[in-house]
Specification:
GO molecular function: inositol hexakisphosphate 3-phosphatase activity
Protein name: PhyC protein
Pfam family, one: Phytase
Distance between the termini: 55 Å
Number of helices: 1
Strand order of the largest sheet: 1-24-23-22
Low-confidence stretches: 1-20
Radius of gyration: 20 Å
CATH architecture: 6 Propeller
Number of domains: 1
Organism: Zhouia amylolytica AD3
Length: 339
């Protein structure tokens, strides 16, 4: 009887330990943005080349009557830069020096408009549409559920200057989950041309978060229930998976990805561990696990980071993460204590 009671007590002890997760000490944000109307999801940081202190954080507000919000570095909405009337915008990204004609280049944001099945493209900072209403994506899919775009990341090849949009979807097949589109301009305007289909999918949950390391030439995406997957970003380099890593460090959904770029190819890959309420950090070069941090956000989907000084508050750069109360949290990059 004593032996049986001891076994029961031991089992209860195991259950208590398993049920009580250790929570890392929280890191408070420097700025919390004003709230959006509906549901925040994904941010993208645009560094103003003329004046970094006037840089802008774009963020999606998911709804049938959604928007791409624009915030200054104090978290205030910049109303004349907000794009409204977007039917369920999901993810957003930024690229610099996109050539629109022989003599002119502009910075751009691209985002997905899920309910219309479109890739959208606007110039920054004047927020003019370049896409004539949008580019249809996943057009060759017979299943309408496989045509709803969700994640997006822009890739600019540092050698030839070509710019691409890599797009994921809400639901998709176990092979070729992502489509890669070349963005280019001619006398008729700006176009999106399908260049590549790639990307394995486990079949568990979905693929939303995508991030591209332009300088090193890699694209990473979250196969949410399994791992972070890595491929070459250049479509000419093929469609073979290079690595699949990190899944054992996550409680449940593997979500937003941000790449903190340091000199000589160093830096970190920061990935949201959504249900655990923290971020897992991996080295940019070797993709090895470094540490986990608690940045006080809840149920974080998207995140973004720049390692360039912007102002006194963000003197080492800026990390932005979505919070589930309709806001985005801003942190001085130094607060992540990665060095």
């Amino acid at each position: 009887m004593i032996k049986r009671i001891t076994s029961i007590i031991g089992l209860l002890g195991i259950l208590v330990v398993v049920g009580c997760e250790e929570k890392l000490p929280p890191v408070a944000p420097d700025v919390i943005t004003e709230k959006v109307n509906y549901d925040t999801d994904d941010p993208a940081i645009w560094i103003n080349p003329a004046n970094p202190s006037e840089s802008v954080v774009f963020g999606t507000d998911k709804d049938t009557d959604g928007a791409i919000y624009a915030f200054d570095l104090e978290g205030k909405v910049i109303e004349d830069m907000v794009i409204r009337g977007i039917r369920y915008p999901n993810n957003v990204d930024v690229a610099y020096n996109f050539r629109v004609n022989d003599s002119s280049m502009v910075d751009i944001i691209a985002f997905t408009e899920r309910e219309r099945g479109m890739l959208r493209l606007f110039s920054v900072p004047n927020m003019k549409p370049l896409d004539r209403g949008g580019y249809p994506v996943f057009e060759d899919e017979e299943n309408p559920e496989f045509r709803r775009p969700m994640g997006i990341s822009l890739y600019k090849n540092p050698e030839n200057g070509l710019t691409y949009a890599i797009v994921s979807r809400k639901n998709g097949p176990k092979e070729n989950y992502l489509y890669q589109y070349l963005l280019y301009a001619d006398s008729l305007g700006v176009h999106a041309k399908l260049e590549r289909k790639f990307g394995d999918f486990s079949g568990v949950k979905e693929i939303e978060a995508i991030a591209v390391d332009d300088e090193n030439g890699y694209v990473y995406y979250s196969d949410e229930g399994v791992a972070i997957r890595k491929y070459h970003a250049d479509p000419e380099m093929g469609t073979t998976e290079l690595a699949s890593f990190g899944g054992e460090y996550f409680k449940d959904d593997i979500e937003g990805i941000a790449i903190a770029k340091h000199e000589d190819g160093g830096g970190y890959i920061i990935v949201s561990d959504q249900q655990k309420g923290q971020f897992n950090i991996f080295s940019r070069k070797e993709n090895r696990f470094v540490k986990a941090i608690n940045l006080s956000t809840t149920e974080t989907d998207g995140c973004d980071v720049v390692t360039y000084p912007l102002n006194k508050v963000f003197s080492k750069g800026l990390f932005v993460a979505m919070n589930d109360d309709g806001t985005f949290y801003f942190y001085n990059y130094d607060k992540l204590q990665l060095e």
